[in-house]
What does this fold into?
Amino acid sequence: MTRSHSWGWVLAFRCFRRYACAVLPGSSNPACGRDPHRQRAGPRHGGGARGGGGRTALMHDVYILHSTVTDRYYIGSTKNVTRRLREHNAGKVKSTRSYRPYRVVYVEPMGKRTEALQRERKIKRYKGGNAFHKLLQNSSGVV
It folds into this structure.
């Protein structure tokens, strides 16, 4: 980022939209609409507009859905389980559209997204086996 206090210079910086933006003298906002003097609100800078209900911005959940019609299970991970359940039941997810409606039977909070994805893969590996059924039986108070 190059800055100059002289009005004859242009303030140039790298925008979060991956292209160089410039602020002309006398203007505070660049052409892309991002304020160069404001920190980006999001997981890297602690917070954001979405909020987390008291949780940190990096919290992810691993969840298991059960189809009430076909007795099938779906395992996934997300930051917002209620929003994701609405998407599944509204038919916005192609892989689960045919087996609606779903209900949440298991939620496991994880720290980072990578941890949630690893846990999701582990649960998918033993899906349908004894370990999967034990996980569901032990989760009576989780949801």
